[in-house]
Amino acid sequence: MTKTIAINAGSSSLKWQLYQMPEEIVLAKGLIERIGLKDSISTVKFDGRSEQQILDIDDHTQAVKILLDDLIRFDIIKGYDEITGVGHRVVAGGEYFKESTLVEGDVLEKVEELGLLAPLHNPANAAGIRAFKDLLPDITSVVVFDTSFHTTMPEKAYRYPLPNKYYTENKVRKYGAHGTSHQFVAGEAAKILGRPLEDLKLITCHIGNGGSITAVKGGQSVDTSMGFTPLGGIMMGTRTGDIDPAIIPYLMQHTDDFNTPEDISRILNRESGLLGVSERSSDMRDIHEAMRAGDEKAQLANEIFVDRIQKYIGQYLAVLNGADAIIFTAGIGENSVTIRQMVIEGISWFGCDVDPEKNVFGVTGDISTDAAKIRVLVIPTDEELVIARDVERFKK
Predict the structure, then answer these.
(1) Looking at residue 170, what DSSP letter applies?
(2) If we measure between CA atoms, which residue out of 41, 40, 36, 44 comes closest to residue 5?
(3) Predicted confidence (pLDDT) per residue in 144-158, tens digit
(4) What is the distance between the alpha carbons of residues 343 and 323, in angstroms, rounded to a whole number?
(5) Average pLDDT, the chain
(6) Which residues on adjacent β-strands are paired with residue 90?
(7) Residue in 384, 392, 380 with CA at minimum distance from that of residue 88
(8) What is the rounded CA–CA span in Å between residue 343 and residue 356?
(9) Where are the beta strands (DSSP E) in 225-335?
(10) Residue 117 — very low, low, confident or very high, per pLDDT cuts 50/70/90?
(11) Nearest Cα to 206, choosing from 237, 229, 185, 232?
(12) pTM beyond 0.70, yes or no
């Protein structure tokens, strides 16, 4: 029996979950927010309790120290030495990392280098890794990459129709993201459907503030919506998703907004998507509240969001030559009855249909009508569990 902690570090946050392994029992979980800002918030949940404190946390190392000390303070562990493994979610593994790997040698430096592919994520992921290395240098430390699940894509799916040298010399290709989530819900779907994963064709929709859709055949990713970076694919909270690349030089010539690569990255990654169209919020709950009040910009943002999801599902029905199930997961996918209903209503010709009595808030499982040919499933994702399992593989 060991204790493993799964870490998902953001630029100003640290999400964590502590497991008793190999039993996969969640002992505690929590979130530290506003790292580097005044009035940081640390929340610890365990034994049906939720404890919160507000304090100033300067950096990720201090955040990890507070997290570990809280585990002792609440008698969840007796000492640091009870934690024998840590797994870190890292978004971009590039072509360096095809699977999860131990943090050793130049692994951390490569994670930081790959920040070019995931500028909103990898630098923060690296900060979390360094913080744990500083405080718990001797435990099994593993990085688990969002991109690893997508390394099974065929070349026709991951290559862009650019001159070959940009792939061979600059590694420009589709990498995808959210791999741990797509992998987890595909496995859970097989259990719900009562069929071997190897026999299934699935379309997994990880729809949150960031979102991606994946075509899964026989348990392997064969195509995914996110591309060279997490900017590609469907419309997201603050990201454009796919746009005509000619828009960028056009706006560089005709506006004062697109002057530098940093300007371009900021606008496309942080100021677009639901936020850019609605001019109100990147949060779908706020969008739907505004829609109910008659806000036309919020209505348009919602319509574009649904439209882009439908189009990717349609693509992947073609890639897979049909599907056994469409799976909704992540914050919006798991919780928005409206989005699920709207997406499926627009593609019902393919044989998918949602039962309104099953499609309710908090549902898990099959929400299809009895006559539906393609099942529609809602499955809460558990990326942390996938991370913890990978850590255990390296302990053996």
Answers:
(1) T
(2) 44
(3) 998 999 999 999 999
(4) 16
(5) 91
(6) 145
(7) 384
(8) 13
(9) 325-329
(10) confident
(11) 185
(12) yes
Exactly one of 70, 146, 353, 390 is catalytic; name it.
Answer: 146
Residue type, 157: A
Sign of CA dihedral 58, 59, 62, 67: positive
Report the helix count and the strand count for the chain, using DSSP H and E.
14, 14
Q: Cα-Cα-Cα-Cα dihedral of 168, 240, 151, 325, to 10°?
A: -150
- Cα–Cα distances (Å) from 50 to 31, 44, 53, 279, in that order, read 11, 6, 10, 34
What residue ranges in the chain does DSSP mark as E strands?
2-9, 14-21, 25-33, 40-46, 49-55, 83-90, 101-102, 140-145, 201-207, 211-217, 220-224, 325-329, 365-366, 375-378
Whether 68 and 86 have beta carbons less than 8 Å apart is answered as no
If phi over 0 gives left and psi between -120 and 50 gives alpha, with beta otherwise, what is residue 321?
Answer: left
146 labelled catalytic: yes
Residues 256-283: pLDDT tens digits?
Answer: 999 999 999 999 998 999 999 999 988 8
